[in-house]
Amino acid sequence: MQQLTVNDALGQALAEEMRRDPKVMMFGEGVATKRQELLNEFGAKRIRNTPLAEGIIAGAAVGAAAMGMRPVIDMLFAPFLTLAMDEIVNSAGKLRYISGGQFSFPLVAIAMTGTGWTVGAQHNHNLEAWFVHSPGLKVVMPSTAADYKGLLKSAIRDDNPVLFFVEMSLSYELGEVPEGEHIVPLGKATIRRAGTDVTLISYGKTVRACEAAASLLAEKGIFAEVIDLRSLKPLDEEAILTSARKTGRVVVVHEANRMCGVGAEVAAIVAEKAFVALRAPVLRITSPDVPAPSSYPLELAFTPQADTIAEAAASLFTAQMEEA
Amino acid sequence: MNETINRKASLAMLESMLLIRTYEEKAAAMQAAGQAAGTCTSIGQEASAVGVVSALSMDDLILTNHRSAGHLLARGADPARLYAEVLGKASGYCKGKSGSLHISVRELGVVLTSTIVGAELSLAAGVALALSMQESSAITACFFGDGAACEGSFHESLNLAAVWRLPILYVCENNQWQAFVHRRETMPMDRIANWAIEHGIETATVDGNDVEAVYRAAKAGIAHIRATGQPYFLETYTYRVRGHYEPDDQSYVDKNELAAWRTRDPIDQLQAKLQLSASEAQALRDRASARIEDAWNQAVGAPYPAISELTKDVYA
What we know:
The complex is a heterodimer of chains A (324) and B (316).
Chain A: E1 2-5, H1 6-20, E2 24-28, H2 31-34, H3 36-46, E3 47-49, H4 54-66, E4 70-77, H5 85-92, H6 95-98, E5 108-113, H7 128-132, E6 138-140, H8 145-157, E7 162-167, E8 174-177, E9 190-193, E10 198-202, H9 206-219, E11 224-228, E12 231-233, H10 237-247, E13 250-257, H11 262-273, E14 283-287, H12 296-302, H13 306-315, H14 319-323
Parallel strand pairs in A: 2-3, 2-4, 4-5, 5-7, 6-7, 10-11, 10-13, 13-14
Antiparallel strand pairs in A: 1-8, 6-12, 9-11
Helix pairs in contact in A: 1-8, 4-5, 9-13, 10-11
Chain B: H1 7-32, H2 46-55, E1 61-63, H3 69-74, H4 79-86, H5 119-133, E2 140-145, H6 152-164, E3 168-174, E4 177-178, E5 181-182, H7 193-198, E6 202-207, H8 211-228, E7 232-237, H9 255-262, H10 266-273, H11 278-301
Parallel strand pairs in B: 1-2, 2-3, 3-7, 6-7
Antiparallel strand pairs in B: 4-5
Helix pairs in contact in B: 1-2, 1-10, 1-11, 2-8, 4-11, 5-6
């Protein structure tokens, strides 16, 4: 199988979808500069640089999507989305409903985030839950190169606005990526590692930390199941509940801040629908309620690590927890 | 361009303005009577809506805003379905899911109506981009006010339209009021077109209470767009005669300024110019009133949406 970086997997998905559908176009700050191969193949009408103005990038995408195009926009770093919130949340998310279904908004907004590049809080903010909380939008955040390709292809074909978050520290990491028509459906989680004793649920690069934690736990004879949500909205409730009912113990892990994060929703779903199967409280391992730091040791302390996750999961097996 | 307007066309524009005025006055009266939620009326601005919309082709697209009834009615919207929307009825153009504030009527080319001031400017760029990608000859007309011109999206939209050569007719209805604040308090100059000039866009400022002048200026602007592929900026200088929304006692409004603008009422002016007899004028008003009364009664009698509609139309 071909080995591609996440960035090239995204480029391959874009090229394939643009070949497949002439309505697909892409624009944003430096898109034509950074994706020269797309510019060469598809021309300056379909691959465009824009002014450095996030509101109009998103607004142009929303308007064009409603009138028959399938725009993909590169918003660069996730905190820049704050300058496009009206266009994404109020227009793309609401105008279908408000108009009684007269419009649809098949667009994809790509944004990078996550620790690892020491860029600090105005280039790194895992604000994906904001969009999960907004009606009318879909949200994905993959963890493997293959999923970046397969989910971007699905996002482009979807008739709804999709926020597509890219872990910047994974951008240049190689991974196996199927060639050609590789589709990963929106709203479907996957089991990265099967287990019977505890479920570690995550998305984005902390899935890797969960896999490493599962190896640490295995040394203690605890067999952890690792679930990669991949899509945050729609959220794969069935995958979450099936695993929670099997293991009876759930740890939710994400790099985003703790309060009202996706982990809170996952914990609530488990509490509401799998309560009788639970043998211990649902735990969350997240970043603290602070802006993302830039100093590397602080970034590491901010980001959930394998040993912390393994310790938390192991704590669910103490006698005290069993009684609780 | 100095296009001649025949009497028949002028009479049609007069009738259209009368329909808008009657519609808005009824909406305000029904709010005052506790029969309807408050709306943002366009009374005093009818000439701007009718002049521009009359100059457009039916395949051109229109983006409007919270003060939209004039644009919608000028385009041919059914007042019964507009009232139904205001009342939250299932027969409204948006199934009752908009209310008065963001009525889109795609079948008439009135698209993506947003009540977020400035959003229309942002979305218009995308609508025009799609038309240009599809090699359509249609243009996009975007109605907004002096308030929206103070938003960042105004400058972002004009800049992108100029560099991407987007076929947009920007129609700035400079009605002097930004919600409860006079434009004098918020901008250092009198003509918003000056900002567009700095973006490299051709402009005109026209008496927004003279429907024939608005029509001619819009025709000239549209011709410019078609000839050059560039956007055009038309400022219609007018006045918001009623409050920001209903009810609004307008205690903050300069009485002399309001009185001066009332003497320049767009309907009275055209009626005088056309030298209609008293009975001709009355017949036109009676026709508008009858149509509006019938529309209101239809809307009042229409059913509300089924509760199952609550969760529909969120995702495609």
